[in-house]
């Protein structure tokens, strides 16, 4: 088994939460692996971004170890209810 580098991970895949990403296998994805450089830093901007991008949420890192996760459901948006098979996250 491959050892994992230090950090936190998200388990996603075929057997997890209805597989919203339509993956063939289960995998551990390291948090911070995908950097979103175009996310606005205002309440309305974050809300609009999550409305327009079908992702579970966004984790903001401060660089000092502190982080904050804002999820679609925090704005009342559904997550993983009716994701069509041909649609994936942006």
Q: How many helices in DSSP terms?
A: 1
Helical content, roughly?
10-25%
Structural class: alpha+beta
Measure the end-to-end span: 31 Å
Instruction: Tell me the strand order in the biggest sheet.
Output: 1-2
Q: Which descriptor suits the 3D outline?
A: flat
Largest sheet: 2 strands, antiparallel
- Calculate the mean pLDDT score and round it: 85
The low-pLDDT segments are 86-90
Please provide the count of β strands: 4
What does this structure look like?
The chain is 11% helix and 20% strand. The protein is an alpha+beta fold. It folds into two domains: 1-33, no CATH class; 35-79, no CATH class. The radius of gyration is 14 Å and the shape is flat.
Write the layout of secondary structure elements.
Elements: E1 9-12, E2 27-30, H1 43-52, E3 57-61, E4 67-71
Antiparallel strand pairs: 1-2, 3-4
Brief synopsis:
Helix content is 11%, strand content 20%. The protein is of the alpha+beta class and 90 residues long.
Features:
90 residues, alpha+beta, two-stranded antiparallel ribbon
């Amino acid at each position: 088994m491959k050892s994992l580098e230090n950090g936190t991970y998200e388990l996603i895949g075929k057997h997890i939460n209805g597989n919203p990403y339509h993956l063939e296998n289960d995998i551990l994805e390291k948090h911070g692996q995908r950097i979103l450089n175009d996310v606005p830093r205002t309440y309305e901007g974050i809300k609009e971004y999550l409305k327009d991008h079908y992702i579970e949420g966004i984790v903001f890192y401060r660089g000092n170890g502190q982080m904050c996760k804002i999820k679609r459901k925090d704005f009342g948006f559904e997550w993983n209810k009716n994701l069509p098979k041909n649609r994936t996250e942006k």
